[in-house]
Design brief:
The structure holds 3 protein chains of 3 kinds. Chain B contains 15 helices and 8 strands. By secondary structure, chain B is α+β, with helices and mostly antiparallel strands. Chain C starts with a strand and ends in a 27-residue tail after the last strand. Classes of the chains: A mainly alpha, B alpha+beta, C alpha/beta. At the B-C interface, β6, β7 and β8 of B face β4, β5 and α3 of C.
Chain lengths: 349, 367, 151
């Protein structure tokens, strides 16, 4: 089932031979098409995720959730999108208008950029960078900036506090996240995501790197600003945090970016720890792409489960947890991994 | 050196966690509070003045609008004060007395579940909110079945209660009572036992015993600070002296204690209702009171143990059909005075929890 | 019914300790004493701190606009003896001024502000005597009998 790759290949082939374009031009167009597909992928996922979040939330809370539009309320979100599009785009008079306008787009762009290196199956990747995971972490860091832009440009005190919290939280939790991935990189011996997946054909890295997996899981909840670490939004004290002033489609773009991030970090978790598109126990009757998506959705289910169960943590506890617990443990994990690899090589040689 | 500056944050009147239209102006140093100024009165309807223009009976429904989470008990406090003024406290029929106790305790459960729900929501535990609302609705359904209204029951009457309940109602109540302990265990599992919850609420907003008395805490808030005082047991009104129940106490008076005391109180309420439905006699539900209520000249003050604290009415009569003066002592209004004192120096997130922990209802604060 | 303090002994003790300041007030509740407005803080402190009475909590602070005077009514409750006492202060119609008891009970703070707001009684020595329920630019005190009702 590498039909997508075949289509991409055929498209490029047709552009080059059929249309008579140069190699550079055809590659450019093919990349643009792929980016479009990535956006579509995010949007399709978004519809499923929002529906899933609502239904799961309802399930955890003994409610029914949306059940009027479409089968089991599945069409609720498309209708919501129409509603959001029809809303007035309010820009506060005292806002820093250019930055205010650009902030939501920045957030969305960083999310799409993250999908550039994610291999959905063998060969199904836009750009198989040799520093793929490095690129992902770097792009993830820039997302902080867009939230800070939104927080400060709104000229609202709640947004301001939300923006500051975001910076503190996301920068603190990037470190344990990167360190937790480092152990996997050491074991795979490559920063290239496809190589990392190939290295997991016999054993998923979640088994030797269980601690790293848990650290990654916790740190990414903070990275994606989801409960119980949704301090940047902090509804109970900050109304809606950095996007308090946003409305209509600009708010919706933040929303999409948030769910896009969720898919991205779940994908990275799948690639780094859960064997990527490799089928478990040799159950290869499903195509690799589907296996990948199943694993991604299992991860997302975990994220949602946590979100709907736990209350919000306090910001100083969050900082203490990040700096005094997660970072030391992740560093220790790297050391143990290093020693383990060294010992393993000594034995095998 | 960086130049820093305090931030003035206007929290409310429209804000997710001020429980209504309460407004406070916070001075923030970073995210730590240096000064709080309370602003109340956004929901002021002048109930005390309205009472002067209504007859004694006409004012009963207004009490539901006071603390709209415990309408039954507000009405009970009012009618008991009028009965005291008229000197007919001893003439209330037995069945009515029992019904009053059952309704009060049912309302206490409904009110405390709302507290659990909103407290859970204020630390962003939305699931706890839904769990508590499930049980609250069952209690409210029973109140609705008895009185016709979920939240503004207008059930108590001067001299008795408005309507009797039947066997079916009691069997429904019994079902709720049977399920309630399991539900409370669920709250304990989902909310009270949660690690993050405990980290958020323990040692936050501590009110010592002396301070609690000084700032006028009453009811569960007072008991959370370790003061062993419950009007139902110490100065029993109605027929509360016939029931056996414990008065749960807190240890150090932090927000956690205030939360736990209320959960324990719900268990006691279940206990009281169980005793009441065992003993409730058949009989009339209204005493013989005159059609036109004209209390003698004089005054009366009566206080009952409301779900929020001591709810008291001070009624002055000039012998006419309308009260000369009605003063409503509102527990929320007085306890809210503690917020500027305790919130000083707290983190913004703790202040929200502290405010939630005293269980304010703005209908009663502003009257 | 309510447990009531032995008023005669109480009034005697107060008068002895604080000078002539209190007398028994006869009304239908049989639990009231009348205190001079300028002595109220001393009396309240005594009632709070005297272990014989031990009124640790202020139960209610009410105010009534009688035709002949303004009366501030303090309902006290003891959480150890469970007895009750009503302290009344009669104020001049033209100049309703009484000492603030905020220094005795912090609980009085908001209640005195409310009494000022709605009844127009001035509590001297109150740290922040401003309107609490009505808007700051409100004219008049609505709970007074001469307040004109209008829609």
């Amino acid at each position: 089932m590498d039909i997508f790759i075949k289509i991409a290949g055929a498209l490029q082939d047709w552009l080059m031979n059929g249309m008579g374009l140069s190699v550079t031009a055809s590659e450019l167009i093919a990349t643009a098409v792929w980016a479009l597909v990535a956006i579509l992928f995010i949007l399709v996922n978004l519809i499923i995720l929002v529906w899933m979040e609502r239904k799961l939330g309802a399930f955890f809370q003994m409610r029914r959730g949306p059940n009027r539009l479409g089968p089991a309320g599945f069409l609720q979100f498309p209708v919501d999108i129409v509603k959001v599009l029809g809303k007035e785009d309010i820009i506060p008079a005292a806002a820093d208008k250019p930055i205010y306008k650009i902030a939501s787009i920045c957030a969305f762009v960083t999310t799409i950029c993250a999908f550039a290196v994610i291999p959905f199956a063998k060969g199904m990747v836009l750009e198989d960078l040799n520093i793929g995971i490095f690129y992902f972490i770097a792009i993830g860091s820039t997302a902080t900036l867009s939230l800070l832009m939104a927080g400060i440009s709104s000229n609202n005190k709640y947004s301001f506090i939300g923006g500051m919290r975001t910076v503190a939280q996301m920068i603190s939790y990037e470190i344990p996240m990167a360190f937790s991935l480092l152990g996997v990189v050491m074991m795979a011996g490559s920063l290239r995501l496809t190589d990392i997946v190939e290295a997991q054909q016999n054993m998923w890295f979640v088994i030797p790197q269980a601690i790293a997996f848990i650290i990654y899981f916790v740190a990414t909840i903070a990275e994606t600003n989801r409960g119980p670490f949704d301090l940047a939004e902090g509804e109970q004290e900050l109304v809606a945090g950095y996007f308090t002033e946003y409305s209509g489609i600009r708010w919706a773009i933040f929303f999409i970016a948030e769910y896009g991030n969720l898919v991205a970090v779940a994908s990275i978790a799948t690639i780094m720890f859960l064997g990527g598109w490799n089928a478990p126990f040799g159950l290869t009757f499903l195509p690799p792409f589907l296996w990948f998506m199943i694993k991604v959705y299992c991860m997302i289910f975990m994220f949602m489960w946590v979100r709907w169960t736990f209350p919000r943590i306090r910001i100083d506890h969050l900082m203490h947890f990040g700096w005094k617990f997660l970072i030391p443990v992740s560093i220790a994990n790297i050391m143990v991994t290093g020693i383990g690899i060294y010992v393993y090589r000594m034995i095998t040689n | 050196m960086l130049k820093t500056q305090e931030l003035t944050l206007n929290m409310g009147p429209q804000h997710p966690s001020t429980h209504g239209v309460f407004r406070c102006v916070l001075n923030l140093d970073g995210e730590y509070i240096t000064k709080v100024v309370n602003h109340t009165g956004y929901l002021h309807r002048g109930l005390e003045k309205l009472a002067e223009a209504r007859t004694y009976t006409q004012f009963i429904p207004y009490n539901g609008r006071l603390d709209y989470c415990s309408g039954m008990m507000n009405e009970l406090a009012y009618v008991m004060t009028v009965e005291k003024l008229m000197g007919i406290t001893e003439e209330i029929p037995e069945r009515a007395q029992y019904l009053r106790v059952i309704m009060s305790e049912l309302q206490r459960i409904a009110s405390h579940t709302i507290y659990v729900a909103s407290f859970s929501l204020d630390i962003a535990g939305f699931t706890g909110f839904m769990y508590a609302f499930r049980d609250r609705d069952r209690a409210l359904d029973l109140i609705e079945a008895a009185s016709g209204q979920r939240m503004m029951p207008n059930y108590m009457r001067i001299g008795g209660v408005a309507a009797d309940v039947d066997e079916n109602w009691f069997s429904q109540l019994q079902k709720l009572l049977d399920d309630m302990p399991a539900s409370l265990d669920e709250y304990d599992g989902l909310i009270t036992g949660n690690e993050i919850f405990q980290a958020r609420v323990k040692n936050v907003g501590i009110v010592t015993r002396e301070m609690a008395l000084d700032i006028g805490f009453s009811g569960p808030n007072l008991r959370a600070s370790g003061v062993d005082h419950d009007l139902r047991r110490d100065e029993p009104y109605g027929i509360y002296d016939r029931f056996k129940f414990d008065v749960p106490l807190g240890e150090q008076g932090d927000t956690f204690d205030r939360f736990v005391v209320r959960i324990k109180e719900m268990r006691q309420s279940v206990n009281i209702i169980k005793q009441a439905i065992k003993d409730i006699p058949e009989g009339p539900i209204m005493a013989k009171v005159p059609k036109v209520i004209k209390p003698p000249v004089g005054e009366a003050f009566h206080c009952i143990e409301n779900s929020k604290g001591h709810l008291g009415f001070h009624i002055v009569s000039d012998g006419s059909t309308k009260p000369y003066r009605t003063r409503i002592y509102s527990p929320c209004f007085v306890s809210l005075g503690f917020f500027p004192i305790v919130a000083k120096g707290q983190h913004l997130m703790d202040a929200v929890v502290t405010l939630a922990s005293i269980d304010i209802v703005l209908g009663e604060v502003d009257r | 019914m309510d447990k009531i303090v032995d008023r005669e002994a109480l009034v005697g003790e107060l008068n002895q300790k604080l000078g002539n300041c209190a007398e028994i007030f006869e009304d239908n509740t049989n639990q009231s004493i009348k205190v001079k407005p300028e002595k109220i803080v001393g009396v309240m402190k005594e009632l709070r701190d005297n272990p014989k009475y031990d009124f640790k909590a202020l139960m209610n602070l009410s105010s009534v606009d009688y035709p002949e005077n303004f009366t501030v009514v303090y309902h006290l409750n003891s959480i150890s003896y469970y007895h009750k006492l009503t302290v009344k202060v009669e104020l001049d119609k033209a100049k309703p001024e009484v000492q603030s008891i905020t220094s005795v009970w912090t609980a009085a703070n908001v209640q005195e502000r409310e009494a000022y707001d709605l009844m127009g009684i001035i509590f001297t020595g109150h740290p922040n005597l401003k309107r609490i329920l009505l808007a700051d630019d409100w004219v008049g005190h609505p709970l007074r009998k001469d307040f004109k009702l209008q829609a």
